[in-house]
C-alpha cells in the first residue's frame, strides 16, 4: 500500500511537468525512478539494473525520495507530439524561455546558419542549463550544447529535466537546472519511423530506425536518423516581411563624398537627373572642401530605395539613402542532418560489466541571406573612385560608402549563401560492478569533440579599391603592392568597377566575383573526462526508517577550444567581418564530490550533497540540502536550497578580441542608425558567476488518478557574467576609446567586454500542475493544465537594476543575458484513448510583453508584443499484429495563428514562432 501511495505521489512531484502534459504523469515518473523493468519490442517485461535518477549519484534510492522537482517525458509521450528533434520538446516545457539557434533572433545578434537548439531554463541563458546524455556531459558545439546533435529521437527512453540548482552534483553550468537525455540501451528488436512535416514554403522530412539485440554476455543497440529541412525566408511570412532600412555604410545605393567641384570632360557643370552637382558643391561644401551626396539614383523605383533629405540641405541629393534587405534574410536556413547512436554492454564477469556509447553527428546547412554586406571597415579612408574611372559621372575623385554589390547579388542572384559543416563525436567507455558489500563502482572515460566550419563571402577591400582603379578581374595581373607587368587600367584582362546604381546590372560579373572572397571560420571544441563514482549504503549504520545511502566521486575534466579564421578576416581588410584573431585555449578542472541520503523517519528523506571544483585560477565549493516529507498518503512536501555556478568561457582567457558581431547601432553624434561591428574583447579577470537557488513544493492527490502540484522557486545571481551592450557603450562615450571612427567621424567598430555585474539577475515564480484521468465506458480521458508564473525577473545592467517582468528586455542598455519575460506560460491539454485509437488536443499560451526594443530603460512606451495562443491536435491509430504499426496525423498551430508582431525582428522568438501551421503525418512500425 505504501509503495502504491509513493508512486501516486511521484506522479505529481515534477511541478509544472511536461510529462503531466504529454503523458500519464504516474507512468512517466514511474519509468524514471520507480519501475524496475522496461519492455522489449513484444511488450514483455525484462529485468534491468537500478535506474540512476537525474540529479543524484545514488543508485539505491528512488526518484520519489529526491526533493528536486523533475520534469520527465518518455518515449510514449514523444509519440504524442509532432517533434522531429529533442529541441522541439522545448515548446512543451513552460519553464524554458527561448532558445539559442533555430529561428533567427536578430535583436540578440543571432544569425545562426545551422539547425541547432539550446535549452534556456528560467530565461537565465543557455549557459545556465547543463545538458547531459545518459548522465554525462557533452561538448558545447556553439557555446551551448546542441540538443539536436545528441541522439535520434527514436532512441530516447526519456528526457528528465531537473528544475533546481545541481552544481553540488554535476558542477559548472547546472544553475537553472539539468536537461538529461536518457537513451533506451535495452531495446530489443527493430523499429522504424518516417515523418513528413508540411510548413508552407519550408517542408521537412525525417526517417529513423533502431535495432537492438542481446547475447549471452552482451547487448547492442544502434539507432540512426536523417532529417531534411528546407529554408524559410522573411519574404515568406507577413510578420517578417517588413521594412527594416539599412543606411550609411549599409546603404543601397551607396553615398559619395565629393573631394572637389564636379566637372564634365569639357570643364562644365555636372547635371544628373536634373540636379546640378557643381553648384550644389559650391553652396554646401564644408570647410575641408568636401560634400557628401547620395547616389543620384537613390529613391528611384528601380533601386527600391528611400531618400531622406538632410535637415540642413536643399531637400534633394544631400541626406541618407535606405534600402530594406529584410525580405532577403532568412527565418531559418536549410539543413541536412545525419545522426548515429550506438550503445552497448559486455559482461566481463558475472558481476563486472564493460559499457560503451558512441554518437556521430553531421550537418550541412545553408543560410540564404543578403547578397552584399555593409562596408563596415574602411580603414583610414573609404574607398576612392578616381576621376579616371569612366563610370564616375562627377569628373573628380569621390569617396564611396555602401554595399559593393548592392541588392542584386552576383550575376543577378538574390542571395549570398552561407554554408556550415558541423561534425560532432561523442564516445564513452567505462566499467561498473560491485566493490564490497553493497557498494558499487562506476568508472568512465568520455571524449566529446565538435567541429564547425562556417563559410561566407566578404568584400576584399584591397581588390575592391583595385577594381575602382581599373584593375578588377581575376586575370588582371594586380598584386598586393600594385599593378604587375602588363597590367593596364581598364585594358585587356583588367576592368573598371562601378559602384553607382546606374551600372548595377551592367558591371562585369568577373569583377564582382573577384572582389567577393570566400571567408571561413573553423571552430573546434573538445572535452575529455575521467569519472570515478562509488556508491552504496553504510550497512550496520542505519536510521530507523532505513539505510543511509551515500556516494563519493572524483572527476578530471579537460576543456579545449580552437578558433581559426581565413586570411581576409585576420587581415582586417574584409569589408564586413573581422578583424579576427586566431586563438587556442584549454583548461583542466579537478573535482571531488559526495552525496548522502538519510531516511530520517518513515516518509521523510534528507539529501545532502557538496562538490568542490578546482579550475586552477579559481576554486568553487557548492553545497545542496533537500528534504522531502510525505506526512500522509495524499500529501508530499519538499524543499531544497543550494548554490550553483557558471565558469567564465574559455575564450575569456585572452585579453584580445574573441568574437565579432554586427548589430544595429544608433550613433548619438550623427543621429544615424546602421549595422556596425561590435567586437568583444576577452577579460581574463572574470570571476565565476554564482547563484543561490531555493525551491519549496507540495503535491496533493485529492482523488484517485488525480494530482495537483505547486512549486515556488527562486534564483539569485551574484557576479553574473554579462557582456557590455554596444549601444550603451557608444551612448556613454561616443568618442571614447571603445569607439573607433573613420576620418569622416563615422563609427566603424565598437569594442565591448564581459564583466561581472554587481548583483545579477534575480528571478522567482510559481510552477503549478494538475492532472486527472477518468474512464467513460471504453474510453479514457486525461485532463491536464500546467502553468509557469513569474513573480520576479530583476535585471542588472551594470549601472542599475530594473524589473523585467512583462517586458521584452531589449532596451539600449539591456545586457545580452536578459530574456523576454512573459508573466504567464500555460499549457492545457486533453487526451482520449479507446483501444487502438488515440487523440489529443493541446492549447499553448504565452502572455504578451512590453516591446522596449531600442529605447531607454527609463522610457515609457505603448508598444507591445501581444499574447500568443495556439491549438495543437493529433490523432493516431494502431493496427496489425500486436498493434505493431501506427499511423499518426496532426497539426501544430491548427488555426495558422501568426506570431504577434515585434519591432525590428518582426516577431519575438522566445514568445512565438513564425512558421504558421505545421501539419504532419508519421508512420511507425516495430518488429
Q: How would you portray this structure in words?
A:
This protein folds into 2 domains: 618 residues, TonB-dependent receptor, beta-barrel domain (Maltoporin, Chain A); 207 residues, no CATH class. The radius of gyration is 30 Å and the shape is elongated. The protein is mainly beta and 927 residues long. The relative contact order is 0.12. The two termini are 37 Å apart. α1 crosses α3. It is built from 10 helices and 50 strands.
Short synopsis of the structure:
Helices cover 7% and strands 47% of the residues. With 927 residues, the protein is mainly β. Its main location: membrane.
Major β-sheet, in short?
22 strands, antiparallel, barrel
Strand elements, count: 50
Q: What is the domain total for the residues?
A: 2
Find the structural class using helix and strand composition.
mainly beta
Our count of helices gives 10
Shape: elongated
Please state the average pLDDT score: 87
Q: Which CATH architecture of the largest domain is right?
A: Beta Barrel
- In the CATH hierarchy, what is the superfamily of the largest domain? TonB-dependent receptor, beta-barrel domain
Euclidean distance between termini CA atoms: 37 Å
Low-confidence stretches: 1-50, 104-110
What is Rg?
Answer: 30 Å
Q: Fill in the CATH topology of the largest domain.
A: Maltoporin, Chain A
What is the CATH level 1 assignment of the largest domain? Mainly Beta
Question: Helical percent range?
Answer: under 10%
Strand content: over 45%
Amino acid at each position: 500500500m505504501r509503495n502504491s501511495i509513493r508512486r501516486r505521489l511521484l506522479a505529481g512531484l515534477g511541478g509544472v511537468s511536461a510529462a503531466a502534459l504529454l503523458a500519464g504523469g504516474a507512468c512517466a515518473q514511474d519509468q524514471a525512478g520507480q519501475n524496475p523493468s522496461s519492455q522489449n519490442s513484444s511488450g514483455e517485461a525484462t529485468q534491468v539494473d537500478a535506474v540512476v535518477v537525474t540529479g543524484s549519484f545514488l543508485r539505491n534510492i528512488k526518484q520519489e525520495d529526491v526533493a528536486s522537482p523533475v520534469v520527465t517525458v518518455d518515449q510514449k509521450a514523444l509519440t504524442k507530439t509532432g517533434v522531429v528533434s529533442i529541441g522541439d520538446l522545448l515548446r512543451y516545457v513552460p519553464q524554458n524561455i527561448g532558445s539559442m539557434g533555430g529561428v533567427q533572433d536578430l535583436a540578440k545578434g543571432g544569425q545562426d546558419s545551422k539547425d541547432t537548439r539550446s535549452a534556456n531554463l528560467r530565461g537565465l541563458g543557455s549557459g545556465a542549463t547543463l545538458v547531459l546524455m545518459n548522465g554525462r556531459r557533452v561538448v558545447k558545439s556553439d557555446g551551448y550544447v546542441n540538443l539536436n546533435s545528441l541522439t535520434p529521437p527514436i532512441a530516447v527512453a526519456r528526457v528528465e529535466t531537473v528544475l533546481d540548482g545541481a552544481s553540488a552534483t554535476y558542477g559548472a553550468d547546472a544553475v537553472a537546472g539539468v536537461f538529461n537525455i536518457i537513451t533506451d540501451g535495452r531495446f530489443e528488436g527493430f523499429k522504424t519511423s518516417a515523418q513528413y512535416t508540411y510548413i508552407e514554403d519550408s517542408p521537412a522530412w525525417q526517417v529513423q530506425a533502431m535495432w537492438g539485440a542481446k547475447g549471452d554476455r552482451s547487448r547492442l543497440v544502434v539507432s540512426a536518423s536523417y532529417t531534411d529541412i528546407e529554408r524559410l525566408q522573411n519574404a515568406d511570412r507577413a510578420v517578417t516581411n517588413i521594412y527594416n532600412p539599412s543606411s550609411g555604410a549599409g546603404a543601397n545605393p551607396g553615398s559619395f563624398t565629393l573631394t572637389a567641384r564636379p566637372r564634365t570632360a569639357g570643364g562644365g557643370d555636372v547635371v544628373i537627373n536634373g540636379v546640378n552637382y557643381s553648384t550644389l558643391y559650391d553652396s554646401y561644401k564644408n570647410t575641408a572642401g568636401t560634400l557628401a551626396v547620395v547616389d543620384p539614383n537613390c529613391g528611384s523605383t528601380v533601386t527600391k530605395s528611400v531618400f531622406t533629405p538632410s535637415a540642413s540641405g536643399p531637400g534633394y541629393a544631400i541626406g541618407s539613402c535606405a534600402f530594406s534587405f529584410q525580405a532577403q534574410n532568412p527565418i531559418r536556413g536549410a539543413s541536412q542532418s545525419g545522426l548515429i547512436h550506438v550503445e552497448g554492454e559486455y559482461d566481463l564477469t558475472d558481476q563486472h560489466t564493460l559499457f560503451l556509447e558512441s554518437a556521430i553527428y553531421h550537418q550541412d546547412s545553408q543560410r540564404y541571406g543578403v547578397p552584399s554586406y555593409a562596408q563596415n571597415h574602411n580603414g583610414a579612408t573609404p574607398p576612392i573612385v578616381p576621376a579616371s574611372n569612366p563610370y564616375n559621372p562627377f569628373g573628380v575623385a569621390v569617396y564611396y560608402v555602401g554595399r559593393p554589390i548592392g541588392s542584386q547579388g552576383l550575376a543577378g542572384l538574390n542571395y549570398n549563401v552561407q554554408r556550415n559543416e558541423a561534425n560532432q563525436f561523442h564516445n564513452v567507455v567505462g566499467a561498473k560492478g560491485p566493490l564490497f558489500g553493497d557498494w558499487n563502482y562506476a568508472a568512465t572515460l568520455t571524449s566529446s569533440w565538435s567541429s564547425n566550419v562556417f563559410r561566407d563571402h566578404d568584400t576584399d577591400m584591397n581588390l575592391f579599391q583595385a577594381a575602382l582603379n581599373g584593375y578588377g578581374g581575376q586575370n588582371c595581373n594586380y598584386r598586393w603592392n600594385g599593378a604587375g607587368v602588363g597590367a593596364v587600367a581598364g585594358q585587356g584582362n583588367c576592368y573598371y568597377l562601378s559602384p553607382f546604381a546606374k551600372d548595377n546590372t551592367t558591371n562585369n560579373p568577373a569583377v564582382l566575383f573577384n572582389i567577393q572572397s570566400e571567408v571561413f571560420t573553423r571552430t573546434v571544441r573538445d572535452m575529455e573526462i575521467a569519472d570515478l563514482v562509488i556508491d552504496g549504503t553504510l550497512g550496520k549504520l542505519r536510521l530507523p526508517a532505513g539505510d543511509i545511502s551515500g556516494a563519493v566521486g572524483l572527476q578530471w575534466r579537460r576543456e579545449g577550444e580552437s578558433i581559426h579564421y581565413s586570411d581576409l578576416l585576420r587581415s582586417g581588410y574584409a569589408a564586413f567581418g573581422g578583424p579576427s584573431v586566431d586563438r587556442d585555449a584549454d583548461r583542466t578542472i579537478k573535482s571531488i564530490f559526495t552525496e548522502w541520503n538519510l531516511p530520517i523517519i518513515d516518509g521523510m528523506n534528507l539529501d545532502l550533497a557538496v562538490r568542490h571544483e578546482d579550475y586552477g585560477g579559481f576554486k568553487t565549493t557548492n553545497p545542496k540540502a533537500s528534504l522531502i516529507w510525505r506526512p500522509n498518503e495524499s500529501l508530499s512536501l519538499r524543499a531544497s536550497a543550494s548554490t550553483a555556478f557558471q565558469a567564465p568561457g574559455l575564450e575569456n582567457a585572452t585579453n584580445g578580441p574573441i568574437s565579432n558581431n554586427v548589430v544595429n547601432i544608433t550613433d548619438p553624434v550623427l543621429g544615424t542608425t546602421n549595422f556596425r561591428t561590435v567586437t568583444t574583447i576577452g577579460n581574463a579577470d572574470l570571476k565565476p558567476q554564482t547563484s543561490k537557488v531555493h525551491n519549496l513544493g507540495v503535491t496533493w492527490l485529492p482523488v484517485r488518478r488525480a494530482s495537483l502540484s505547486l512549486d515556488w522557486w527562486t534564483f539569485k545571481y551574484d557576479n553574473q557574467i554579462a557582456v557590455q551592450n554596444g549601444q550603451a557603450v557608444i551612448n556613454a562615450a561616443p568618442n571614447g576609446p571603445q569607439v573607433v571612427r573613420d576620418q569622416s567621424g563615422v563609427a566603424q567598430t565598437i569594442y565591448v567586454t564581459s564583466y561581472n555585474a554587481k548583483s545579477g539577475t534575480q528571478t522567482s515564480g510559481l510552477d503549478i500542475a494538475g492532472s486527472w484521468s477518468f474512464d467513460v465506458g471504453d474510453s479514457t480521458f486525461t485532463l491536464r493544465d500546467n502553468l509557469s508564473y513569474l513573480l520576479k525577473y530583476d535585471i542588472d545592467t551594470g549601472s542599475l537594476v530594473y524589473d523585467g517582468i512583462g517586458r521584452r528586455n531589449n532596451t539600449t542598455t539591456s545586457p545580452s543575458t536578459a530574456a523576454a519575460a512573459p508573466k504567464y506560460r500555460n499549457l492545457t491539454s486533453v487526451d482520449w484513448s479507446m483501444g487502438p485509437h488515440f487523440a489529443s488536443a493541446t492549447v499553448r499560451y504565452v502572455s504578451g510583453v512590453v516591446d522596449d526594443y531600442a529605447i531607454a530603460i527609463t522610457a515609457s512606451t505603448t508598444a507591445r508584443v501581444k499574447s500568443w495562443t495556439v491549438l495543437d491536435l493529433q490523432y493516431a491509430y494502431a493496427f496489425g499484429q500486436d498493434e505493431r504499426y501506427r499511423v499518426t496525423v496532426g497539426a501544430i498551430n491548427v488555426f495558422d495563428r501568426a506570431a504577434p508582431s515585434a519591432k525590428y525582428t518582426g516577431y519575438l522568438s522566445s514568445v512565438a514562432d513564425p512558421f504558421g501551421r505545421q501539419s504532419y503525418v508519421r508512420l511507425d512500425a516495430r518488429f
